[in-house]
Design goal:
The chain contains ten helices and eleven strands. It has 343 residues and is an alpha+beta fold. The chain has two domains: 164 residues, Hotdog Thioesterase (Thiol Ester Dehydrase, Chain A, Roll), CATH 3.10.129; 131 residues, Thiol Ester Dehydrase, Chain A (Roll), CATH 3.10.129. It is globular, with a radius of gyration of 20 Å. Helix 2 packs antiparallel against helix 8. Strands 1, 2, 3, 4, 5, 6, 7, 8, 9, 10 and 11 form an eleven-stranded antiparallel beta sheet that branches. Helix content is 23%, strand content 31%. The longest helix is centred in the first third of the chain and has 17 residues.
Length: 343
């Protein structure tokens, strides 16, 4: 496709999407997460927890295991890709996540239950050879009092199958890796009770250190894409190794927060004194693509600890993901975790 032809496609699609701003549509398919899918996802992000992966797990507000918040969140990109308004206005465009805000998980999503997503186009603007598309998402189980997820998603749409570099977002935080303090990890605690969280609150605003290096392989990135609905990467008409050389899905990078957090002393897995719930993401933005095999590590800052109901603590952390060789964080995310502990 010539550049003038691509530019014309982008302009036409941007105009159609802008005209649809404020319009809502349902996702093409309901969201159902089976136990094997949940197990595979948990293994990919290092969050193997009984409340998600043990069929015998029970809690006061759940009859069985619940889906990881990041598992629901990771399907946003595919929801946009399959959205009827987007398919009609921008057929054949590549959809790449570049931002998130206002993500919350108001109620548990039981494994095996059916949720439906409503997507509203909030804004569409032509930018640097593509379209910056902002959508609002409301995912709910029918008859439930609260949704299982609400979120605002920002994607960069480009014509064809090859993703292009995304533009900078307004207000995007650019973190220089060299300027991040070394930090000190939270000391190991045998019990995560009121005393532990009081000590944690005293560390508010400080950096908790840097995690060991890790990487995501082609196979892991491919598996993540398949679990989260990107069936295009497994098209029978594709080459023998369809995902080789493609960037790691952006939401895979964000989901690694669960894997990285224990390295700086933040508990993730349910134990005798504590359960950790993904409360949401205040904001996240990506800059640049990360290829499989790239070494990655997380720089973690404790932004604050808020005491809620007795035994409940809302912890906000900033995560700056470093890709080896890049002087800037490739992902900056402010996340919230609700800890329910023994008082």
């Amino acid at each position: 496709m010539t550049q003038p032809a691509a530019d014309a496609l982008v302009r036409q699609a941007a105009e159609r999407l802008a005209e649809a701003s404020g319009s809502a549509t349902g996702a093409a398919d309901p969201i159902v997460v089976s136990q094997p899918e949940e197990d595979a996802f948990a293994a990919l992000i290092g969050d193997w927890d009984p409340m998600h992966n043990d069929p015998g797990w029970r809690a006061a507000n759940s009859d069985g295991p619940i889906v990881l918040g990041f598992h629901v969140l990771a399907r946003l990109e595919d929801q946009v890709r399959r959205c009827a308004l987007v398919r009609d206005a921008a057929p054949g465009f590549t959809v790449t996540t570049i931002g998130l805000s206002g993500v919350r998980f108001p109620s548990p999503f039981p494994v095996g239950a059916t949720a439906h997503a409503e997507i509203t186009i909030a804004d569409a603007a032509e930018r640097e050879g593509g379209i910056v598309l902002t959508t609002s998402h409301h995912c709910a189980v029918p008859a439930a009092a609260k949704p299982v997820m609400v979120a605002r998603h920002v994607a960069f749409l480009t014509p064809g199958q090859a993703a292009r570099p995304a533009p900078q977002l307004a207000g995007q935080v650019a973190m220089t890796i060299a300027g991040i303090p070394a930090g000190t990890a939270i000391p190991h605690a045998a019990r995560h009770d009121a005393r532990f969280f009081a000590a944690l609150a005293d560390r508010g605003g400080t950096w908790l250190g840097t995690t060991p290096w890790t990487s995501i392989s082609d196979r892991e990135a491919h598996a993540f894409a398949l679990l989260c609905g990107n069936r295009g990467s497994n098209d029978a008409a594709s080459p023998a190794h369809p995902f080789a050389g493609r960037p790691v899905p952006p939401l895979h990078l964000l989901a690694l927060r669960a894997y990285f957090s224990p390295s700086v002393g933040l508990p993730v897995l349910t134990d005798d004194s504590m359960m950790a719930f993904n409360y949401g993401v205040d904001a996240a933005s990506w800059r640049g693509a990360v290829l499989p095999g790239t070494r990655l590590r997380d720089h973690v800052q404790l932004r604050g600890v808020e005491a809620r109901a007795p035994g409940d603590y809302l912890v906000t952390t900033r995560h700056v993901l470093e890709a080896e060789g890049d002087p800037y964080g490739v992902l900056v995310a402010d996340c919230k975790t609700l800890y329910r502990s023994a008082t």
